[in-house]
């Protein structure tokens, strides 16, 4: 029987995670990409493993990889978005907070996605998803975490009160909005407890009920980093919008993912105090 798209996303993410796990702690060649960004040999090898899985099963699909760029037909309806090691700086510093992200965009929506934690062995995944306005789950979607071959449904919860705020650049909405200023807001401290995790693994934690919310600035359309996590959160029933409450990839951009509408509304009120009027 042919492999389904969701199982292919899972298999590909697990293949990348195996490489990341195996190369952890060893000497790593670095490849400079810009003054503030680099890849390691683990990024390159993990992406190669992921692409081998995808191309073997879906040779006609296009792929956009963080390290290798776009391959396949320019007009392809199906495009795999691959981030082989989200948290490269963490990894190079021998921190285990990293993720391996694989998502399939079909037309304008993400229809399968997986985010693997190489060190816990967990893989968060979804299939049958579609783009929505971000105010609830995607119709017909499923979202699970797989541990030792067993799938458990994801259930968002704001009970922890923990909110991850991404403080890594770029900051396209600065100086009007800076995520770091949320941490100094009295209203934030009264309601939430801040955390800073520089990997999109934190996005999946909202879907899994381990975080109440996640906030970042940035232009995230076609992002290999965020596509899988956003799809998981939609499928789990989280509220997913830009920092101005509009659908993702519109308006001011950025991302606010919240476990429920109450948490989302509270964060938008705090963020709104920074945004210029009319944004």
Structure description:
Helix 5 packs parallel to helix 6 (227-236). The protein contains seven helices and 15 strands. The protein is 27% helix and 27% strand. It is an alpha+beta fold. The model has no long low-confidence stretch (mean pLDDT 92). The protein has helices spanning 5-23, 41-57, 88-92, 186-191, 201-207, 227-236, 261-272; strands at 30-34, 37-40, 62-65, 69-71, 78-86, 99-106, 109-116, 123-127, 142-147, 150-153, 162-165, 193-195, 213-216, 239-241, 255-258.
Percent strand equals 25-35%
Helix content: 25-40%
Biggest beta-sheet profile: 8 strands, mixed
Query: Stretches where pLDDT falls below 50 for ≥5 residues?
Result: none
Strand arrangement across the biggest beta sheet: 4-3-5-6-7-8-9-10
Ends apart, CA distance between termini: 50 Å
Order of helices and strands: HEEHEEEHEEEEEEHEHEHEEH
Helix-strand category: alpha+beta
The number of distinct β-strands equals: 15
Radius of gyration in whole Å, from Cα?
A: 18 Å
Number of helices: 7
Output mean pLDDT: 92
Oligomer: single chain
Task: Show the helix and strand layout.
Blueprint: H1 5-23, E1 30-34, E2 37-40, H2 41-57, E3 62-65, E4 69-71, E5 78-86, H3 88-92, E6 99-106, E7 109-116, E8 123-127, E9 142-147, E10 150-153, E11 162-165, H4 186-191, E12 193-195, H5 201-207, E13 213-216, H6 227-236, E14 239-241, E15 255-258, H7 261-272
Parallel strand pairs: 3-5, 11-12, 11-13
Antiparallel strand pairs: 1-2, 3-4, 5-6, 6-7, 7-8, 8-9, 9-10, 13-15, 14-15
Helix pairs in contact: 1-2, 5-6
């Amino acid at each position: 029987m042919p492999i389904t798209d969701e199982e292919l996303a899972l298999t590909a993410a697990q293949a990348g995670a195996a490489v990341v796990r195996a190369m952890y702690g060893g000497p790593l060649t670095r490849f400079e990409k810009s003054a503030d960004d680099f890849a390691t040999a683990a990024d390159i090898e993990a992406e190669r493993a992921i692409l081998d899985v995808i191309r073997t099963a879906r040779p006609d699909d296009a792929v956009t990889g963080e390290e290798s760029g776009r391959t396949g037909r320019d007009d392809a309806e199906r495009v795999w978005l691959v981030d082989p090691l989200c948290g490269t700086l963490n990894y190079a510093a021998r921190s285990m907070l990293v993720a391996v992200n694989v998502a399939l965009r079909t037309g304008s929506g993400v229809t399968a996605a997986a985010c693997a934690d190489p060190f816990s062995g967990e893989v968060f995944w979804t299939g049958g998803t579609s783009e929505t306005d971000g105010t609830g789950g995607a119709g017909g979607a499923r979202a699970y975490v797989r541990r030792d071959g067993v799938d458990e449904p994801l259930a968002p919860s704001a009970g922890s009160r923990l909110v991850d705020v991404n403080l890594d650049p770029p900051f396209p909405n600065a100086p009007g909005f800076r995520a770091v200023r949320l941490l100094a807001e009295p209203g934030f401290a009264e309601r939430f407890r801040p955390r800073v995790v520089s990997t999109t693994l934190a996005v999946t934690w909202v879907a899994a009920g381990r975080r109440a919310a996640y906030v970042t600035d940035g232009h995230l359309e076609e992002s290999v980093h965020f596509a899988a996590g956003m799809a998981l959160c939609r499928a789990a029933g989280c509220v997913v919008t830009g920092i101005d409450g509009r659908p993702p990839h519109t308006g001011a951009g950025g991302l606010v993912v919240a476990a429920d509408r109450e948490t989302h509304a509270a964060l938008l009120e705090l963020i709104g105090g920074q945004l210029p009027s009319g944004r």
